[in-house]
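agent> Task received from the user: take the single chain below, predict its 3D structure, and emit structure tokens. No templates, no multimer pairing.
agent> Plan: (1) validate residues, (2) run structure prediction, (3) serialize to tokens, (4) report one or two observations.
agent> Step 1 OK, no nonstandard residues flagged.
tool_call: predict_structure(input=
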Amino acid sequence: MSKEKTMSNHERTQRLALLAILSAITAIVSFLPLKTLGLEITFSMVPVAMAGILAGPSGGAIVGGVFGVVSFLQCLGYSPFGAALLAINPFFTFLVCVPTRVLAGFLPGLLCKAMKKAFRSDILPLLAASLAAPVCNTAFFMSTLVLCFYQTEFIQGFVEAVGAANPLVFVLLFVGINGLVEILCGFAIAFPCSKALSVFLKRFRQ
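)
tool_result: status=success, residues=206
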């Protein structure tokens, strides 16, 4: 019984350390977008996806929450777009930044957990969760942005600039190639990193 308790404490400590590291990485990469070929690609959802995969839905929600809080704090002046939203409505800006990222970490973690019970191999669950995380982030962020700010003069300026006929077209045009590349890059990094770290953690526990 003592051995089981020790193992349980060891796994708990390992989980806390993993979440702390992934949270720190999330905070750092949020300020380090990759700018290339006219695109600005962020990798903040990579550690969020990894947290959901390796530490379950609650782990994904925690690291997603860190991403959301950092994103909200960037609205205080670091991000011109976020600062404009904050000036219009601080509460709606919080909803756009934080709960969306919590869900974007929680749901892929839930998906991975459910699929691991259905499949013998963990390859498909990891692939699905790695792709679901950036997709959920983009979908939740943009849908909340549209619900909260679409009728504002600020967002209507973007609507007119891209020539969108309705909110759905606006989302597709606003996200565009940059969003698609960000989703694919996040998926391509999150899956191999999660797989490698998963193997390492299993061996470390033995």
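agent> Step 4: summary for the user.
Confidence is low (pLDDT under 50) at residues 1-6.
agent> Done.
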